[in-house]
Structure formats: C-alpha cells, structure tokens
Design a protein that fits this description.
The complex is a heterotrimer. Chain A is an all-alpha fold. Chain A contains 15 helices and no strands. Chain B is built from 17 helices and 21 strands. In chain B, strands 13, 16, 17, 18, 19, 20 and 21 form a 7-stranded mixed β-sheet that branches. The chains are: A mainly alpha, B alpha/beta, C mainly alpha. Chains A and C meet through helix 3, helix 4, helix 10, helix 12 and helix 13 of A and helix 5, helix 6, helix 11 and helix 14 of C.
C-alpha cells in the first residue's frame, strides 16, 4: 500500500467517524445534564430515513439535515417529558423509543428504499487542501466532516470554558446546588436533552446523505451504531475530546478490519464485522472494573507497592459519570 | 441587615410545622436558634431562604416586606444559606464553583475571578488554592468556600444550619472567628443548632423552638453566659432526661485486633491493637472521614484489612467476607437507613423473612406475619406487618433496623445510631442496645455527637486523620477533651501511627 | 382502595386508546386506512383455526422468554442480552441434534438432550453478561447488546461455514434435521403441544418462584436495594448471577423450541426478535406474572396478524411493532400521569 492510499484511507476514517461524533457529542451533552438518551440507535435510523426522504422529495440537502435535527429533538422531547415531568425510568422510555423509531424507519421509509438521492458534495478547502499530508487528511472532505471537527471543539469549549457550560456540569452533578445558584434545573434539563437530541439527529443525515448515502431499509447497515455510540460516550468519560477520540478509534478499527481482511483469509468476514462489539465490551470493562468490589478486596491482599501501582492505573482509566445521571430533581 | 418574621405558619398535611412564629433579629447580631430535631427550625429557615413558602405570614428585610420565591431570589434579596452538607460541586475546581452561577459573562474571566477569591480570602484569613479541586478539601474548608462565595454574591444575612457538625475544633474556632467579624459589617448571622455549647460561645441572642412554636427568647446580658437550665427547659419542656450510666462489661474477648491496618483511597490506618470485651460499649469519635467509618466497616469484614489479624470470639476471621462475620454473630447497622439498611418497596414482614434463617423453599406467610407482629410490639414500631419500610418515620425505621438483629449476637457495629432522631427515640434505642449488652454483645458505634459518645460508651477510641488513640475511659474524660482530640490537639503520645 | 384500582384501570385503557390513535395517525400518514389495517391484523391472527394455531406457535417462545425476563426484572436487571441468549440456545440445540441424529441414540433422548443443551447454552451466554456486570462493572445493557451482535454473527458464520448446507449455503439455514427428531405437531398445523406445555410450565414455575419462595423474595430484595440485601444476609452477586442464568436458561429453551418444533434447523434469524418483544411484554406487565399470559398472547397475535399486511395492503409489517412499542410507551407515560394525579389528590386532602 502506498502512503497516498493510507492517507486517503485515514481521511476516509475521519469522514466515517463524523456521524458517530455527532451522536456521542449529543449524548454527552444530554447526559451531562443528567438525562440518558437510550433511544439513540432508533433516533439515528429514523433521522437517517426521514432526512433522506425529505432530501429526495424536495431535492434540498439543507432541508434534509434540518429534518434530521427535528426528528432527534422530537424523540428527545418525549424522553424529557416522560422522565422529567412524568418521572418514569429513562432506561425504559429510551429503550422503547429505540424500538419504535427503528420500526418507524422501516415502515415510513418503505417508499424510499433504493431510490437515488442527493449526496453531500466534496468541498476541498481552497489553499488548505493542498498542504501535503494534512491537506489530504483533513481538508478534502465534505461539509459535515468539517462540521464534526468544529462540534468537538465547540462542545469542549462550551462545557469547560463558558458560564452556561459550568452550569450544565452543575445540573448533572448536583442539581440541588445548581438550584440555589439560580438554575431552573428541570427547564435546563429539557433544553439540553432536546439540544443533545437534535445533535444526535445530525448523525442520521450524515449517514444517509453522505457517508452511507441512500436508504435501504433494514439493509442500510446502520442498525447497531447507536448502541456503539452509547458505549463510546461512557468510554469518553463525558468529555467531548475523549469521546471524539473514542469515535475516531472506532472508525479506525473498522477501516483496519476492511484493509486487513484480504490478508487474513482464515478469518471469516463475520468475525471482523462484529469485532467492534467485543472491543466495546472490553473498553467498558477497562473503564469500569476499578469500581468493582472484588477488585478492592483482592487488591487489599496484595503487597503494598503492587497494590499502589495497580490502584493508580485503575483510577487513571476510570470514568465517573455525572453524579445525578438518571436521578430526577425536585426542589422540595 | 435587619430580619423580621411576622406570624409565620406552615403546614405539612396535618402537621403544623411552624405555628405563628414572630421573630425580629436586629442588624449585625448573631442570633441562635435552638430546638431539638423536628422542632421546626429547619422549616423556618427554609422559608426564609426560599425553599418553602409560608402558608401565612410575611418576611421583612430592613423594614421592607419581601416575597422570597426561591433560594436564588433569597440570595438576591441578601439572604444566603450555608447548608450542613455544603451545596458545592466536589469534582470541580474552587474557581469553577465560584463562577458557576446564572449571571455574568458568557466567557468568564478566570484571572479576575482568581484575584477576587484571593482578595476575599485575605480579608477573612483563609488560604485555599483557587485551582484546587473541591473534593480535596475538608468539610470545614468547604464551608469557608461557601461563606466566601455567598459574601461575594452580596449576602447580608447568613443562615448557618448546624455548621459545627463534622468539622474539627480548630476549624470551628476559625468559623467562629469569621462569624464574629460579621457584626462590624452589619451582616446578620442566624445560627441554627441543637448544641447549647456552641450557641453559648457565639450568639448574642437565642430563640428556642419546640413543636413548631417559638417558646422563648433570651438576650445575652453584658459579659454573662446564658442561663443553661432555662434554655434546656425551653427546648424539651422539662429538664433534659438523662439516664444514669450503666455498664455491663463482662469477662471474655469478643473482638481482638492484632496489628490491624486498613486503608481507602485517602486514608491509612496502621497497626491497631485493640480488644473489646463482652457487654462493652465502645464509642468511636472523630470528625467525619477521620478513619472511624473505615475502621468500623473493617471490623465487620465489609472492607478487607491490608495487614494484621481480626479475631471474633477467639476465632480468626481475617480477610473473610461480611457474611462469614455475620454467621459468627457480628452485625453491622449502616447510617443510611433507606439506602443501605432497609429495602424500600418491601414490607416489614418481608424484612423479617429475609433476615431470619430460611427453612425450606416456600415462605410460610403466617409465621412471618406472627414474627412481624411480635417484633413490632417489642420494639414499639409505629407500623403494621404490611407497612412498606419507606413509609415509616426515621425513628421507626431505626427501630425496625434494630428489630432485625438476630439473637444471639457477639458484636454489633453501628454507624450513627441516633442521627436525626428525636430525643424520645434516642433514649428508646439506647435502652434496647443496652439490653443487648446485658445479654453479652459488645457494641462499637461511631457518632458525630460527642455527648452521645460520652453518655453511652464505656470506652472511647478517638480518630484523627487515620490515627487511633488508646482507649479512653469514658468516665474520666470530657466533651472538651474529646473535642480537642478530634481536632488533632492534646494527643499525649503518638499512639499507633 | 377500590376507587384507585378502577382509576388505575382507567389510565391503562386511556393508554391503549392513545397508542391506537398514534398508530392510526402513522397509518394515515402512510396513506392507509387504519380500520382496514386493524381488520386485516385481526383476520390474520384470530380469523381461522389455522391462524390461531400460528398465534400459539408465536406465543410459545414469547411466553418462555417473558418468564425468564420476569426473573431478571425482579432482580433489578435489564437483560437486553436475552436476544443473544435465545440464539445461543438455538445454536447449542442444533449442535446436539447434528451430533446425535445419525447415531443410534433413541430420538426421544436426542430431543431431550438437545433441549437441555439449549437451556445450558442460553444460561452460559447469560452468565457471560452477568459476569461482565457483577465482576467487571459493565452495565448489562451494553454487555448484553454486544453479546447479541456476537451471537448473531456466530449463527451466520455457522450457517455459511461449518454447518453449510450441501450445495449452496443460504441465510435460509442449515439442512433440516431428520424427521425422527422433530417435536410432533398437532394435525397439519405447526403447533407442538409439547412446546405449548413447556411454555405453560415455564410461566408457572416463575409464578411460584417469585410469589411464594425465599429465592423470589431475595431476588426482589437484591433488585430493589442490593446494599441492604447484602447486609441482611443475601449473597448478592450469587443471586444476580442466578437471575441471569435462569433467564438465560428460559431464553435458551425458547431458542430450542424454535429449532426443534418450528424450523427443524438453525436459521439466520432464529430469535425472530422475541427477546426484545419479551422485554416489552415484561415492562408492560410490571412484575405481575399472571398478566404476562394474555399480554404475550396479544403481542403474538399482532406479530402474526401483521404478516399478511404487505401482501394485502402493501404495508410494511413493522406497523405492528410500532403498535406494540407505542402501547408500552403510553402505559409508562400514563403511569406517570396517574402518579402525578394521585399526588395532587393526596395534597388536596
């Protein structure tokens, strides 16, 4: 393989990661506010279908993307209403919505299956695209890939450097303390859940109008990505930068699987296709195992230096969720 | 700022939590509010700080009537509250805690904020690094942070809810020093407590609440202390009923620790040697997080010791799990009753069925109900066999926990046996515990209430930052001495560290 | 007391009505007449004896799966991995049949061993999700989902690889078993009375387990408050693992029934989504074991009734999935509305 081919391949990885980036950033924002959006897998499918449908019917890409955001926001609104106003389990509502949205994408998407549709054009950035290596990697992409870079940075700056971002951390960490600081906790949770949902809703059209353009119903190959994105959010420790890293790692491993397949004839293709899932389990194991009780007990039986060393390693990997994630708030 | 409360009424269902409270607090004074748990102190303070709305009555600040709709609105009007459990954000930095509010620039200027913090700290003699994380601070330091934050946001009235619980003697001195600076700046402080001693030291005036009513007020006469007896009488309606000390210490070791070491992420306890005899009550004193909690759990096998041996009734149980300890007659009662002790959603009967040894596969309902009825009567629990535990009051939940203990027992380990309970329940629970001692069980308990420790223990272990004192004879020590030791002063030797 | 029960019932009826309204709106949006669609679904499920027997065929794996899921739900666990556990049950069953069908083993013994193997296969796959949860701190939702995908891939790999049909391999499955090891069916229907009996026994076992035994009580305690259950003397992680493995064994039994009584081979989609459907049913009945019997029957009827929609009305059969989902969603929502309503009524008193 030539260097050029590898570069183009890696550029493809950046593009392929873009929808996952939108999904994990949307989820990170929602969970930072304390609400888990478990519907993600269904939301992505439905927004992919709906935006493709709109784009085909109106021949307007922008309307397609707006439709995706609208679908994402709408599903998030149902979760917010069920959880914040009606106090039902986020997991239950999210899971049911994941199934409903998947079925809806099948049902309503039926007429669009296999239709030719518009596709987001490549938009190399004049000047930057000609820089060796970097240009090929980063600046010969389409608009949504550029947007994904921007979203990572914006989300990070927002969460850690701005005043509303600090408040967002506050309402997910200790809503009672945010409340005495003047936050209308439940209204803000509504807002961020819907905002997060809208961003997740960008993942759909980024698939159906760009990365995997078109709509093929259940054969679109999108089913399952939402669940992986949820795992990446945990891996990312609710930090946009670390989450984006997770998304890139995931896309890179998928690409690696494709590239390596011809040179590994003994490994059936099914194995490489599902490789991300055991990997997802493994990464979750790494970030979570430090919390398990038996680990503490076992460590206590070890000699001091070994104990110190392992404990430090586990703590470095561990990701702790916002303290009030999934906990409803009532101001007495 | 002058605070006036006029004709405040508050009902919770049928419970008249505040009954026509009239109280005027002159600007720049330190007002004590005394009363036992459930007397209506916190309700009144929550009305003043915007958590609750009074059903009747009005609040005047500096003579102007105000409507306080929320805690944030209260702070805007100048009323800030310092909560017992500081309302800050432990995983965030001090500076972020300061910046976290609704008003201000979109991109806050961290440099300016750091300067502001440092300036305030100089004024009040605190020293904290603005960039350090809140979870690395002690409770006392977190209080300092909250005080500064509230001052910075313009609080002119401070409500302090039991602020001396869980902080060291040195930090308490510091807190009092800070509060004594308030009058110069015309800042009013309202100090809510059930500890006479603290009110005594600090306050200019005292108001006493009992059963929702304001039952009396007292003003400090120049240089003279308050009339303690009178205050106690106002608080309880009679003079404090203290049972005579009883000791049931018997022959025979129940728990023996040889060179035991325990640790958690923050704290190391090293080489403790200790023996508890049958029938003995051992109190563990120390400010929150000094090691007594880790120690207590290690004695139950809930945390594995990293060195040394643990023997229960001469049997070596080192490294075994809690269930092995339990089979050897050890039981642990946690402080968080509904989080760790009881199962919300299950009835009292189901709890007894869980706690007793099961016979056969199928549950015999009638046996369970009969057992529940017996225990409910024996422990004076206000509830029925089918009551869900979460519907019981705190005192009844604690009684339920005690009633779940099996017989016979060698050792009972208790976290905060009476926290948040009214005086009647406290006395009842200790009478039940002392019955256990008569039967030969030893009791180890931790409490942040030094009076409780002194009153009920035979011997006392003091914890400071992972250090454990030699056992002190409860008869020969005093609250003052314990207070010094939990603050790290007056340790005669370097005992076990 | 009686009043609240009536009002509970009222809220649930309202939930059903709302679910029907929303589904009808979706049908109208797709240009279909909702009444026609519902009529078709009814005719396709209860319209004839043959259809009814098909409904019962679908009811069997669903009810067995729900029986298992009620155990994990009681223990406070979201066993989303149930889908993979059904698949692993199917795989293990197929493996044993392929191993024994051409030997001298009596067919009855082969069938019994194959079903047992299915239960063990499901239980072991569930144990994996359980171990990840109890020893690795990996939430069972993510562990289970990952294992579902792995199980599906394993099926496809087996069908196209080692267990390939002679000639052309296809997603339609492995070669059919010898007829001697098929579970006998009733008349010319696909309904096996043996399977039906096992389903009914399964739900009865779970009913008695959860209502009247110490094991059931301890499972509930672990589900509601594991810390307190541990302090009260319940071996917590062992009970969590047991719940996973019991559920997995039931799921494996469901998979074994699909293989032995319905398809007589391993097919690519052996679980047919009964795992997720079972989760919906279990959520809907909210721990009340008895109710799972009619609700599972209703859901099975919807599944079967939807099959002919694409042929007759040119509608995708996923509409029945939408109806099932919205039904659960609105029941959850209405429960929330009811709680708010009761609370407000309580405050007024």
């Amino acid at each position: 393989m030539t260097t050029e081919m590898i570069l183009v391949g890696l550029a493809g990885v950046l593009a392929a990661a873009a929808p996952v980036i939108f999904a994990v950033i949307g989820e990170t924002i929602s969970e930072r506010a304390g609400v888990i959006n478990l519907s993600m897998n269904g939301t992505i499918l439905l927004s992919a279908m709906a935006s493709f449908g709109v784009a085909v019917t109106t021949d307007n890409l922008l309307l397609g993307f707006l439709m995706g955001m609208f679908v994402g926001a709408l599903v998030a609104l149902v979760i917010a209403f069920g959880n914040i106003t009606l106090r039902q389990s986020q997991v239950a509502i999210g899971f049911v919505l994941a199934l409903i949205c998947r079925d809806l994408s099948d049902f309503l998407g039926n007429p669009f299956v296999g239709q030719p549709g518009p596709r987001l054009p490549f938009a190399p950035i004049a000047g930057l695209a000609d820089i060796p290596v970097i240009g090929t990697l980063f600046f010969r992409q389409d608009l949504m890939t550029y947007a994904s870079y921007l979203f990572i940075i914006l989300a990070w700056v927002f969460v850690y450097k701005t005043r509303p971002g600090l408040m967002l951390q506050g309402i997910g960490e200790k809503p009672a303390a945010a409340f005495v600081r003047g936050a209308n906790v439940n209204r803000m949770r509504y807002f961020y859940t819907i905002l997060g949902g809208a961003i997740i809703g960008l993942a759909g059209p980024t698939f159906s109008l760009s990365v995997k353009a078109g709509w093929k119903g259940t054969l679109s190959g999108l089913d399952g990505i939402g669940w992986i994105a949820l795992a990446i959010t945990i891996f990312g420790g609710w930090n946009p930068l670390r989450a984006a890293f997770g998304a890139y790692l995931f896309a890179f491993l998928q690409w690696l699987g494709l590239v390596l397949q011809p040179s590994l004839p003994g490994v059936p293709s099914q194995v490489l296709q599902v490789a991300p899932f055991p990997l997802m389990i493994l990464t979750l194991l790494l970030v979570n195992i430090g919390n398990a009780e038996w680990v503490g007990r076992t460590l206590a039986a070890l000699p001091e230096p070994t104990r110190r060393f392992i404990a430090r390693g586990l703590r470095a990997m561990r990701a702790s969720p916002p303290a009030a994630l999934g906990v409803p708030f009532e101001s007495e | 700022m002058k605070v006036e409360l006029r004709g405040i009424h508050k009902y919770f269902g049928k419970n008249h939590a505040n009954d026509d409270i009239n109280l005027t607090i002159p600007s720049g004074t330190i007002q004590g509010i005394l009363g036992e748990n459930g007397a209506g102190k916190s309700t009144l303070m929550k009305i003043l700080s915007g958590y609750f709305h009074a059903d009747q009555g009005e609040i005047l600040l500096d003579g102007k009537p105000v409507k306080i709709a929320s805690p944030a609105a209260a702070l805007q009007a100048g009323v800030g509250m310092l909560h017992q459990d500081p309302l800050d954000f432990p995983p965030m930095r001090i500076i972020d805690n300061f910046l976290l509010r609704t008003s201000g620039d979109f991109f806050p200027n961290r440099k300016h904020a750091a300067q502001d913090i440092n300036l305030l700290m100089k004024e009040f003699g605190f020293s904290l690094d603005p960039e350090s994380y809140v979870d690395s601070l002690t409770v006392g330091e977190r209080q300092q942070l909250e005080i500064m934050r509230l001052l910075f946001l313009g609080a002119r009235v401070f409500i302090l809810d039991e602020p001396t619980t869980g902080i060291s003697a040195a930090q308490k001195a510091k807190l009092f020093e800070t509060l004594k600076k308030f009058p110069e700046q015309a800042i009013t402080a309202i100090f809510v407590s059930h500890k006479l001693e603290d009110v005594e030291k600090l306050c200019d005036r005292v108001a006493v609440l009992r059963q929702g009513k304001l039952v009396g007020q007292m003003e400090r006469e120049q240089g003279k202390p308050f009339d303690n007896k009178k205050l106690v009488k106002m608080m309880f309606g009679k003079e404090a009923p203290l049972a005579p000390r009883q000791a049931y210490s018997q022959e025979g070791s129940v728990l023996r620790l040889n060179d035991v070491s325990v640790e958690d992420a923050r704290l190391k306890i090293r080489n403790v040697n200790f023996e508890a005899r049958a029938g003995e009550v051992i109190g563990l004193a120390g400010m929150e997080g000094s090691g007594q909690g880790v120690f207590l759990r290690a004695c139950a096998g809930l945390i594995r010791t990293v060195g040394g041996t643990v023997q229960v009734k001469e049997k070596d149980l080192t490294g075994k799990s809690y269930h092995v300890y339990k089979n050897n007659g050890v039981e642990f009662l946690p402080a968080a009753r509904l989080e760790e002790g009881l199962v919300p959603g299950l009835s009292l009967t189901e709890h007894f069925q869980l706690a007793e040894k099961a016979e056969g596969l199928f549950i015999k309902q009638d046996v369970g109900v009969k057992l529940a009825q017996e225990r409910i009567a024996a422990f004076n629990i206000k509830g029925t066999p089918v009551s869900a535990v979460e519907s019981l009051s705190g005192g009844n939940q604690q009684r339920a926990l005690l009633s779940l203990l099996r017989t016979p027992l060698s050792l009972v380990l208790i976290e905060h046996p009476t926290r948040g309970l009214d005086i009647e329940s406290v006395i009842y629970i200790w009478s039940k515990l002392k019955e256990r001692c008569k039967q030969g069980s030893a009791i180890l308990f931790m409490s942040s209430d030094l009076d409780e420790i002194l009153q009920y223990s035979d011997r006392i272990l003091v914890f400071f930052n992972g250090k454990v004192s030699q056992p002190l004879d409860a008869e020969k020590t005093s609250v003052a001495k314990l207070g010094e030791m939990i603050g790290g002063r007056g340790w005669q030797e370097e005992p076990t560290a | 007391m009686k009043n609240t029960r009536i009002s509970n019932f009222g809220f649930q009826i309202l939930a059903v009505v709302l679910a029907l309204v929303v589904t009808s709106l979706i049908l109208i949006a797709a240009g279909a007449n909702p009444l026609d669609a519902y009529k078709n679904i009814y005719a396709g499920s209860f319209g004839s004896f043959e259809k009814l027997s098909d409904v019962l065929v679908a009811w069997i794996p669903l009810l067995i799966t729900v029986a298992g899921l009620l155990v994990t739900f009681s223990a406070g666990l979201w066993n989303i991995g149930v889908e993979g556990q059904i698949i692993m049950g199917g795989i293990a069953t197929t493996w044993i049949v392929r191993l024994l069908q051409d030997t001298t083993t009596p067919p009855a013994l082969t069938i019994a061993l194959a079903i047992l193997a299915g239960m063990i296969g499901g239980a072991l796959w569930a144990a994996l999700a359980g171990a990840l949860k109890t020893f690795g701190g990996v939430n069972e939702i993510f562990g289970g989902l990952g294992l579902n995908f792995v199980a599906t891939a394993a099926t496809i790999w087996l069908i196209f690889g080692p267990w390939k049909r002679p000639g052309v391999a296809s997603i339609a499955g492995t070669e059919a078993f010898n007829e001697s090891v098929w579970l006998p069916t009733m008349g010319d229907t696909r309904l096996s009375l043996w399977a039906l009996g096992l389903a009914i026994v399964s739900i009865m076992i779970v009913y008695f387990l959860l209502q009247g035994t110490y094991i059931g009580l301890r499972l509930k305690a672990v589900g509601k408050n594991p810390k307190a259950a541990y302090l009260l003397g319940v071996p917590t992680w062992q009970y969590s693992m047991m719940a996973f493995m019991l559920c997995g064994a039931f799921a494996g039994l469901a998979g074994a029934m699909q293989v032995m009584a319905v398809y007589h081979r391993l097919i690519g989609s052996i679980s047919s989504g009964y795992g997720f459907l079972g989760l919906l049913v279990a959520m809907l009945v909210n721990y009340q074991v008895i109710w799972s019997v009619p609700v599972a029957l209703f859901f099975a009827a919807l599944n079967i009734g939807g099959i002919q929609l694409p042929i007759i009305l040119k509608l995708d059969s996923s509409i029945t999935g939408i109806l099932q989902g919205t039904l659960v969603l609105f029941v959850l929502m209405m429960e929330g509305v009811r709680q708010r309503f009761m609370k407000r009524a309580g405050e007024k008193q």
